[in-house]
Amino acid sequence: MLLQAVEYRDAGVTRTGGWIDSARKDLHLETSRRIAEAAITLSPLSWRDR
After folding, report:
1. Which pLDDT does position 33 carry in this prediction?
2. Helix (H, G, I), strand (E, B), or coil: what is residue 25?
């Protein structure tokens, strides 16, 4: 759900902030929180630039 919201945000869909916040609040493990932070701060297509 979080990754889909980030992709929508990157595509220009407005009002995805609540969706992203909602997905993040259910993350309990430190690893999942770190993955979420990376997903939010990086472009969804950044893997193509590697």
Report:
1. 96
2. helix
